[in-house]
Amino acid sequence: MTTLCHGRFMPIREPLILLAEDNEFTAETMQDYLLFHGYRVNLARNGLEVIELALSTQPDLIIMDIQMPGMNGFEATQRLRLEATTAQTPIIALTALAMSGDRERCLDAGANAYFSKPISLRQLMETIQTFLGTREKVNVYDA
Fold this sequence. Notes:
The protein is an alpha/beta fold. The protein has helices at about 25-35, 45-55, 75-80, 100-110, 120-130; strands at about 1-5, 10, 15-20, 40-45, 60-65, 90-95, 115.
C-alpha cells in the first residue's frame, strides 16, 4: 500500500501489534483476526519474550495476556513502562482473571485497557482502533 506524500508515492507502514498469549488456540484465533484486519502481528508466549520483542520491534500496540508462564503480564507491563521506548505504547490487558479488583490491578500495572475472556473481537477491534487513531469499518460478520 502506498500514499502520495510531497509528490512521491511512499509505502504505508501497517501498524504492528505485539500479541502476548500462551494459549495456542487463542493466539492463533487472535492473530488471524488481526491479520485479516490489516495489522502486522508479532507473537510472544511469555513475559520475557514480550519485553524482548517490544524493545527490538517497537510495536504500535501490545495485547497482553496476564496469566503466562514464567514472567506474568503484570510484571511484563510494569517493566515495559520503565523503558523509554515502550513507556507510552498502548497496552491492552486480556485475561481470564475476572475477580473483583482485577481490572484495577491491570490498570495499576500500566495497562491502558482491560478485558476479561472471553472477549468480543468487535469490542477489541474498536479499542485497538481508538488507541491507534484508525477507524476502519468493522466487518458485520465479526464476533
